Amino acid sequence: MSKTLLYPPRIPLAQTPTPLQPLIRAAERWTPGKRLWIKRDDMTGSLLTGNKVRKLEFIAAHALDTDVDVLITCGGLQSNHCRATAVVAAQLGLRCHLVLRGTPPSDEGNTLLDRLVGAAITPVAPEDYRKNLRALLEATAEEYRCAGLKPLVIPTGGSDGLGAWGYIAGVEELAADFAQQGLVNPLLVTATGSGGTQAGLIAGSALHDLDVRIVGMAVCDDADYFSRKVSKDIAELQQRFPDLPEFAFSVETIDRYVGEGYGIASEEVYRLIAELGALEGVVLDPVYAAKAFLGLITEVASGSFDDHSDIVFLHTGGVFGVFPHAEKLSSAHNGWS
């Protein structure tokens, strides 16, 4: 299908292609008998590091094409998507307004970076955020309209039918990686939180005829939620871009590694971050990537992935989210060393 696939407008914000690297010592430690790979989307940029910038390439192009003045989006205090949106807005000369869940005691990690690049921030109590997010975003947008500006409200994680193009393009890159490295019957594992990366990967594998099993490791919610959310994003993609060929798909999500909830990491997660860092010089964040990697190695140990000799882990970035967890990570590092 990819020979006739026409992409929507796109701004080249990410540093791509990102490397696909073998994790030799980690494979010996956790996946013996299998080749373990990591797709380094933590290297899509410096301040733009992570998976979110791939989606923003298409969202930002739409914003410029429609004369938008202000990017408005939402997430947790340490949202990687919000930080990336704030940086993109600054790079393109746009304003940015973030509606963030929680009240920060002090600026740190992503929240500090949000402010440094000029984003306006509205902190919202978690319960109010959960109940009234749509109204809060609309009220924020209306304030800018009343000031004579044109806002664009970007959904959580940039996850919708437009943002899905980020990983439709990403799959085209993965197809070249797999061919170059000679991957056989690969399994691709990714953290999934807002569902957009998972939706783009699934749509991309169909549109680019890439035979790969895609497993999302939930960092919030449950498998049923992601089945609905990913299907909704793909339906919106097909509705918004009716010239796309139709394709069948399935959504596979494992929800056993969420732990106590979104943004809450266990001691096991902290130890894993420290151990992988020492083995491979790769740092995972405790909110997304580390939970997904824990799921990967646990499922391998249980035999769930026995049909696959090549396992690819998508590193979705989030390194700045490490710093608010510094105390617990330091304890984990001391215990591992």
Write the layout of secondary structure elements.
Layout: E1 20-22, H1 24-30, E2 35-40, H2 52-65, E3 70-76, H3 80-92, E4 95-101, H4 109-116, E5 120-124, H5 126-146, E6 151-153, H6 165-181, E7 187-192, H7 196-207, E8 213-218, H8 223-240, E9 253-254, H9 267-280, H10 289-302, E10 310-315, H11 326-336
Main attributes of the structure:
about 325 residues; Rossmann fold; alpha/beta; single chain; 2 domains
Q: Indicate the structural class.
A: alpha/beta
Helical content (DSSP H or I, runs of 4+): 40-55%
CATH topology of the largest domain: Rossmann fold
Task: Report the sheet-strand fraction.
Answer: 15-25%
* Total separate domains: 2
| Shape verdict | globular
The residue ranges in which pLDDT falls below 50 over 5 or more consecutive positions are none
CATH level 1 class label of the largest domain = Alpha Beta
Outline the biggest β-sheet. 6 strands, mixed
> Average pLDDT value?
95
Question: What is the topology, as strand order, of the major beta sheet?
Answer: 1-2-10-7-8-9
Any idea what the radius of gyration is? 19 Å
Order of helices and strands: EHEHEHEHEHEHEHEHEHHEH
Structure summary, number of beta strands: 10
Give the termini distance in whole angstroms: 49 Å
Based on the structure given, which CATH architecture of the largest domain is correct?
3-Layer(aba) Sandwich
**Number of discrete helical segments:** 11
